[in-house]
Amino acid sequence: MALFGRKKTSEPDADAAPAAETPAAPVPQITRRSVTEQRAFLLDQVGAIRPFGMQIFDVPGLTLCEDIRSDLDLPLVTTARVGGWAVRGSDLVGATPEVPKELYVVDQIAAGEAPGAPLVAGAAIRIEEGGMIPEGVDAVVPDAYGVLGEDGYVRIGTETRLYDNLRRAGSELADGTPLLAAGDVLTPRSVAVLAEVGLDKVLVRPRPRIVVFTVGDGLVAPGQALTQPQQRYDAATTLITAAARADGATVYPLGIISSDAREIRQTIADQQIRADLIVAVGGGELIREVAEGMGELDEAVVALNRESRYAFAALGNDRTPMVILPAGVVSAYVGYHAFVRPVIHKLNESDPLAAPRVDGFVAERLEVPDGITQYIPAVWSSDQTVRPVSGVDSELAWDLARANVLLVIPEGWAGADAGSQVECIVLDDAGARGDEAVR
After folding, report:
1. Where is the stretch described as Disordered (predicted)?
2. What is the pLDDT of residues 356-401, one digit of tens each?
3. Measured in Å, how far apart are the chain's first and last C-alpha atoms?
4. What is the rounded average pLDDT for all residues in the chain?
5. Which residue did the predictor score with more confidence, 195 or 23?
6. Which of 49, 235, 246, 390 has the least C-beta neighbours within 10 A?
7. Dihedral angle at the C-alpha atoms of 156, 160, 164, 169, nearest 10 degrees?
């Protein structure tokens, strides 16, 4: 007899209820957004950088955050435009070369000296060009019109008008005159105005600080040797860095970060302290997982040139914004124009959608998938024809270098026939080539 009775396998009971199946785990659904929806989402996640006072030597190119009015007169005092005789105009009424008026010379004022006592009726003061005008003087007669006698009298044979040859206080810039307005972008000339009225600091919005890096193991930094056939140089970091600087940001390019989760995590953690925005190119699922562990992550499938995942993370307690662009030079540049550039403008409290655009007409039929927005590097000519410089799947910076616009095909179009009117985004250096696209 067996020590342990074996349980017999029973036949299934036909009347018994079937065993419940374990439900399959739900497959997470990635949000799908249009280009416009993704841009609007990103702009909702950031606000303008807080302004603070900066030395005027450091503010050209920055946005002014206060109204500036003159709080002094320029010139500060009334001075003589010419050397001659400071007089009361009423004392010279009727004076002619034949019948000059005689005025007793009571003082002499050199340029830079104090004006002295007020001028009384019947008197005159010898004054140099630039000399300060004393009270009672309302005109200066040029030296050639007066003859000084040994008796101390000057004989002037001409009449004069009120304020003749005077550079009056406040005549060039009066106290209270509006000079600059909040929202103005400061230029070297406007900074000189600040100095002219005695300001050494001004309230401005600083340039957004952008950290840029690219993730990938097959990438090599420019200047280094390619050692394997599958390697290629990293042009994306350079491109995004240059584009962000052209849009007014202070950029810290980090170059290439290897596809190692710990290195990516450490890089992001180290850079948060100095970044208003972090832009990463490539990295795929790995960098999205790292970012998710460091803050709140949003992922969306956006049909821009192709269906690609665009991720945004709000990192740490400060919720430092991070935008992850697809790998590839053209894909990253297109993503920059569609999403990163508007964010930079928002940080700088300028119009997020500000970008020069022109209309054009497609030179040849373009075959593009329906439901996908296309930003295609193209050449816009003065006759308004637009010709793509490459196929929609190109990832060469060379194609961008030959283009002066990004031709935009909306997602609702299934291609574009020759002659179709399209909108084009003018690229940053188009004006430097003398193209007529910039308007």
Report:
1. 1-31
2. 899 999 998 888 888 889 999 999 999 999 999 976 677 889 999 9
3. 101
4. 88
5. 195
6. 246
7. 90
Neighbours of 273 (CB within 10 A): 9
The Cα-based distances of 15 to 11, 174, 338 in angstroms read 12, 102, 63
CATH fold of the domain at 32-49+207-347: Molybdenum Cofactor Biosythetic Enzyme; Chain A (3.40.980)
Class level of CATH domain 52-73+174-205: alpha beta
Give me the pLDDT at residue 367, please. Answer: 83
Query: Is the separation of the CB atoms in 374 and 408 below 8 Å?
Result: yes
Domain 357-433 in the same topology as domain 52-73+174-205: no
Residue 347: which of 213, 206, 243 has the closest Cα?
206
What CATH code would you report for 79-167? 2.170.190.11
- Reference 177, options 64, 76, 71, 78; nearest CA is 71
Whether residue 14 is predicted with pLDDT greater than 50 in this model: the reply is no
Q: What is the mean pLDDT of residues 310-338?
A: 94
Check residues 326 and 2 and name the one with the higher pLDDT.
326
pLDDT at 390: 79
Q: Give the model confidence (pLDDT) of 83-117 as tens digits.
A: 999 999 999 999 999 999 999 999 999 998 998 89
* Domain map (residue ranges) of the chain: 32-49+207-347, 52-73+174-205, 79-167, 357-433
